[in-house]
Structures are given as structure tokens and as C-alpha cells.
Amino acid sequence: MSKLPNITTSIFSVMSQLANEHGAINLSQGFPNFPVDERLLQISERLIRENIHQYTPMAGLPSLLEKIAALTLKQYQRNINTATEMLVTAGATQGVFTAINTFVNKGDEVLILDPSYDSYEPSVLVAGGIPVRISLNDDYSPNFNRIEAALSSKTKMIVINNPHNPTGRIWTNAEFEALELLLEKHPKVLILGDEVYEYISFSHPHISFHTRPKLMERTIIASSFGKSLHVTGWKVGYLIAPEKLMAEMKKVHQFLVFSVNSFSQHAISEYLDVVDFNEISKMYRQKRDLFQSLIKNSSFELMPCDGTYFQVVNYTKISTMNDVDFARELITKHGVAAIPISVFYNDATDRHMLRFCFAKTDETLIAAAEKLNSIMK
Question: What is the span of the domain harbouring residue 112?
Fold first, then answer.
């Protein structure tokens, strides 16, 4: 009997395969198509011949843990105990899976805010939990009336992705305060903060759970070097949580992957001495601004993009077709691949929105924009 009977091939794979078949420009999957930093390549070339290819300690390479602690202190003014509050994971997705499967038991409910990244619900289902999907407002802000109505004695956890994939929205301070007020009534509910795009913010600074003292003791924060350093194929992320929570997650992690790729940990540890995360955010801001400027006069309506490397557009002026079919037609007729937003909703809410990934070379974005600008109703 399948634990995931309703899970089929992901929309990301479907759209990428279709893009390959039709030679379309792929702005669907969320990974960069430009080279990694030359400095990281030089570090990697040197390290590959060193004696670093055996298991690291289960929780992570000690030097990397120290660098992460220093980064967290610099960015968020939060002191982390590397021995008890941190865990290097095989990508943030494994971190999310570990967190959910550590604390969610059969029948526990987990609140997920839609549109939501597609790994949350399967992780809950494998744990035997019950996903409770709650739609955000039309502007993708949290609807606290709906969240409050969904909270109950069965609620074990709420998953909050900020900056948000797929919409690119960032929570405001007022929204965090509303969450704090609401969760005061539910002291046992845990928070899983998916902050993999934390270093890619534009319109206003990303507010992290690291900076919320009222929530910190119940929050597990997932981060991603794959996203932050545009090395998604290295699959290295990390979790930060209070000791009482981390101790339990380490038990699951130990028998899930034990330890993460040693070479990647060594290379990232050295690279953190030279990389400037502000420059990374600046680079993505330039790409967002370029992409927006290129298609601002098209028939697509640009939605706000506060962070991440995703741009959501509305295509109502072009077609009344549902977003999945329109995304397919965009590939087959116009040569550009995107992701329909309805697939991120439990009820397939369709507001005629598509998600484009602008983590691409300028040449790719210019070529894609030329095709998008030619599309008329």
C-alpha cells in the first residue's frame, strides 16, 4: 500500500521535459544556469586532492558549523551553540523532511499555507500526519482568520516559507506580530520556518524567525547553501533550532543520511570566508530588475517580487485558458517554460498566474523576454 498514492511526477519535471522536447527557454525550474563563483571553483579544485573524502561528524563539519554560527550572528545577532543547536543537512528539503518526521505523529495536523512548495505535504503524509492547507490572501499575505480557525488541539506544527516560493513575497513585521499574538494561545504548536531564500531580498529586508524572541524556542529554521550560493546540485543545507528540538532531530538525521557530503562541506566552509551575501542579493536584484524591465510593456502583468528569484505574472490580458494548459501552450507555441501557480494549491486555485525563474544569464532572460513580448491576446 502506497504512503503517497496521489503523488505523481512533479510539475517541475513535467515542464522541464516538455521544454526539452520543444527546445524552449526553461524559466520553470528554480535553479541558476550561470557558472558558480570562480573563487569557489578554485577552492574546490584544490580541496579535491586533499584528504577530506571520509565521513564528517554526524551533525556537520566543525569548521562549517562555526562559520554558520558566525554568519547567523552577523546577519541576525543570534548566538548559536554549534554543538547543540545546529545540523548540516543534505539540502533544505531533507531538513524539512527530518523536522516534520521527527515531531509529527499519526493523526497530528500540520498547517501549510497555500500556494506552498510541493515537498511539505508528502513529508507530513509519510509521517502519518494530516496536512491542513490554508490559502493565503489574494495578495499572498497571510490570512490570520483562516489560520486561527484551523488551529486546534490536534495541530502539531505550522510551516511558514519566507521569503516565499512561488510568489516572491516577504512577511512584514506586523504579520510576525500577528502570528506571535495568535500562537500565544497555542503554546505547544511548533513552527517550521523555511528560509531558504533568506539572502535574496529586494523591496524590504527579510525578517527571520532568528530575530523573533517570542517564537524562537518553538521554531526550527531551514536554510540552504544551494540557494544562497547558487550551487543547488551540491544539496547542502542546515537546520537551526533550540537544543530540546535539535536533539530529537539528530536522532532521525543519524539514520536517514548520517552525515552530509564531506567535500561540499569543506568547500563551503572555506568559501564562507570570502563570499559576501549582500553581493549575492544585489546580483539577483539586478536580474529581477532586468527581467521586469524587459517584459513591463508585454501583455503580462507583473506581480510584486520582494525576494527569491521568482517572478509571478498574470496573463489574463492574453488568455482565459487555465494556467496549466496555458503553461503548456507557452512552451509548445511560444518557446518559454514557466510553472502554473495553481499546482501549489491543494484546491488548484487558478488566478491565471505563472511563475518565472530569473536566476538565469542575462542572455537567457533577454531571449525569453523577446518571445514573451510577442505574445498577444
Answer: 54-271
Task: List, for residues 109-156, the tens digit of each pLDDT value.
Answer: 999 999 999 999 999 999 999 999 999 999 999 999 999 999 999 999
298 lies in the same domain as 317 = yes
Chain centroid, CA 175 distance in Å:
19
d(CA 174, CA 179): 9
pTM above 0.70, yes or no: yes
Query: Measuring CA to CA, which residue among 285, 260, 237, 254 is closest to residue 68?
Result: 237
Instruction: Look at residues 140, 149, 144, 141 and name the one whose alpha carbon lies nearest to residue 132.
Output: 149
51 phi and psi, to 5 degrees? -85, 75
Across-strand partners of 96?
A: none
Backbone angles phi, psi at 135, to 5 degrees: -75, 140
Tell whether 208 and 157 lie within a shared domain. yes
Parallel/antiparallel/unpaired status of strands 301-302 and 310-314: antiparallel
C-alpha to C-alpha distance for 45 and 327, rounded to whole angstroms: 40
Q: Which of 77, 76, 52 shows the shortest CA–CA distance to 64?
A: 52
